[in-house]
Amino acid sequence: MAGAQYIAFVAIVAILAKPVGHYLLRVFEAPAPLCAPERWLYRVAGVGGEMTWQAYARAFVLFSLFGTLFLYGVLRLQAWLPGGPDAAYLTTPMTPDLAANTAVSFATTTTWQAYAGESTMKYAAQLLGLVSQNFLAGGAGLAVGFAFMRGFARQEKETIGNFFVDVTRAILYVLLPLALLLAPILVWQGVPMSFSAYTEVTTLQGATQTIAQGPIAALETIKNLGTNGGGFFNANGAHPYENPTGLASFLELLAIVVVPAGMPFAFGRATGRVRAGWSLFVAMGILFVAGLVAIHVAESIGNARLAELGVSGASMEGKETRIGVGGSVLGTAVTSNGATGSYVAMIDSFSPVGVLVTIGNLLLGEIAFGGLGTGLFSLVMVAVVAMFLTGLMVGRTPEYCGKSLGVREMKYVAIYTLVVPAIVLPLTALALSTNAGRAALGTNAGPRALTEVLFAHASCAANNGISMAGISANTPLYNVTLAVSMMAGRFGLAIPALALAGAFAKQKTREADEGTVPSEGGGFIAIVLATAVLIGALTYFPALALGPIVEQLG
After folding, report:
1. 183 in a structural domain
2. C-alpha atoms less than 13 angstroms from C-alpha of 142 in its C-beta half-sphere
3. What distance lies between CA 73 and its chain's CA centroid?
4. Scanning 64, 158, 187, 312, which has the fewest C-beta atoms within 10 Å of its C-beta?
């Protein structure tokens, strides 16, 4: 059953990716506004002409900063907002450090949650603050992805597009229509969309239980489409109100992947190198399927200690029983690859190999589909490194898709490659070497504790938000350090990517000749995959050896 589910999912993504990619390219490369509301928005906002990469990066950063400040204000003032739930249910105070962490989290599409939504957030804060940022931040990420793409498509140009035009089109023609299509389906499947008060019920044992309610479908839809992932409830996608049926779970996972999967095809059409786009998509698919199979095998073997007690079969600890091992594994593979921390299973209960593959997806930069825009330029960065090394080995001037890889371009790539490890590894060491950091580890010790902390910072730097949930992360130390990881993963990667796009846009595209190293085909795919694994191993192997690897061997 699980195998059929995996095959169906991959097949549907493969079928939809090409038409989605072509649609995205038509939207973002349209020479004029596509409808009157778009034209009116530009007129009211005073949107001007195209931008250099520096201006584009400034607009992106300032847009994100405004979103962060707006959300911080909403969170700090939520006690005065109208509507439910009753204040008696909101037991977690929205302190300044928690509000700052949450604001940065949603404004960077990380949606890391150091709180339980049902005991912290008012309905108005969820809708006005979190839902709006999911649209805005997701649109901004998609805009940066297309600006990066233009660097390869353009020749001898100083500009890479207009950020405000791109983010408007991302929301108006991509995220909003898909959200309006998916939300009614989720409501039909049982996801609530109401402003009802929390319900008090009596259980069969006679105890009183509180069932949280709220406008859940609004957040559930865009958190997946925008590759955000923050849940309405603490249990996130494992909560029956967020994920009530197998069909709802399947559709939500498709919502995470389909738009990022279309980006390689848009890249191929934009650059006039369709086969290069296909090659990038195939590389993504191979990485995704390999990780999916590895997690499935690891989680289907069962627990050796339980086997000693006569309990056989797959380990169901931490799995969502409504969707089984297959749905739990598929959800984990999708969310850890898709920059969407909408987890449907408790990764803290996974085997060491299952955890290793999941954290590996994060540390590799989520290059198998990834987030809106970020997945494409993460994989292209790996491809650039691969072509640079290959070009040097064969004695050719390195190039990729007709763009020369000179000193300036490779400096941008080097900065991009070093940002995440330069933030994740020191902050992990800081947390593990301080009393405040170790005090938050109330569940695990030893290698699993190291993995918990590394996983948290890797997730935040990848702007994913998925967690192992073994850390009491709502402390000043973690709220600050994880916010730093989020900002580094958002701006520390997007700015070098835009700089590289600007450098490529100024170049004249070189025509391929007999000595050109191909940027498509089986050989290219193999080189890219090998380079991704090599970079990941050289950067993170010591940390992983002290965490999930030694845990597995022990």
Report:
1. yes
2. 33
3. 25
4. 312
